[in-house]
Specification:
Layout (H helix, E strand, L loop, with lengths): L7 E4 L9 H10 L5 E6 L11 H7 L7 E6 L7 H6 L4 E5 L6 H10 L3 E6 L17 E5 L14 H11 L5 E5 L7 H7 L3 E4 L1 H4 L8 H15 L4
Parallel strand pairs: 1-8, 2-3, 3-4, 4-5, 5-6, 6-7, 7-8
Helix pairs in contact: 6-8
The structure holds D-xylitol-5-phosphate and zinc ion (ZN).
Length: 229
């Protein structure tokens, strides 16, 4: 199958009901989510703490699409096998998480997963220029990582630059933070294809009222699709 650059909506379960992850995942997938984005935080690389490999493993049977695990942790390498065992499809590490991202990406692929590399807002596109042959995804943070519901930081120039650097390589550009119907068109026009959205997907809905998730997902997709490159 050829590489798929269509817009994909990846709800972040950071905005789900933490007492009910299984049903929340099933609800967003039934409502049209393309991928499920799982935010792992360690209280050290970022000032917040979420969950680790046993929880991610428990999510796995509920995810029928793609489980996209975003590690906001340091160090990364000692935990790669645990996330492979937990069933991650994509495993993304931050380029700021250590001095050896090249080795980390190799190790993620060697463990059988797709490898992602994430950039904080202050990190330039060129920080991953020499990693692109080892990456399946570049995640551009449009907030400082750690919390859902923050205001979008405009990184469209960085996304455009990455799009140039990536060229014909089969590498997704993912946007994470503050994505909604207003900001999705900007990043889609610059070349992003995977849009993570937490609060904008989960707002107003629940497992008892999942239609709202569907409305939110369709609204973000429609806003982005007119502008995808
Ligand atoms: C932030 C996380 C994001 C977050 C996005 O550190 O990586 O995935 O959940 O949430 P919203 O869409 O609410 O900005
Ligand atoms: Zn994330």
């Amino acid at each position: 199958m050829s590489f798929d650059r269509k817009i994909k909506i990846a709800p972040s379960i950071l905005s789900a009901d933490f007492a009910n992850f299984g049903q929340e995942i099933q609800a967003i997938e039934a409502q049209g989510a393309d991928w499920v984005h799982v935010d792992v935080m360690d209280g050290h690389f970022v000032p917040n703490l979420t969950f680790g490999p046993p929880a991610v493993k428990a999510f796995r049977p509920h995810v029928k699409t793609v489980m996209d695990v975003h590690l906001m942790i340091t160090p990364v390498d000692p935990y790669i096998q645990a996330y492979a065992d937990a069933g991650a499809d994509y495993l993304t590490a931050h380029v700021e998480a250590g001095p050896h991202t090249h080795r980390t990406l190799q190790a993620i692929r060697a463990a059988g997963m797709k490898a992602g590399v994430a950039l904080n807002p202050g990190t330039p596109a060129e920080a991953v220029e020499h990693l692109l042959d080892l990456a399946d995804l570049v995640c551009v943070m449009t907030v400082n990582p750690g919390f859902g519901g923050q205001k979008f930081i405009d990184m469209t120039a960085k996304v455009s630059r990455l799009r140039e650097l990536i060229g014909d390589r089969p590498v997704h550009i993912e946007i994470d933070g503050g994505v909604d119907t207003t900001t999705a068109p900007l990043v889609a026009a610059a070349g992003a294809d995977v849009l993570v959205a937490g609060s904008a997907v989960f707002k107003g809905g629940s497992v008892a009222n999942p239609d709202v998730y569907g409305q939110n997902i369709r609204a973000i997709r429609a806003a982005a699709e007119g502008h995808a490159v």
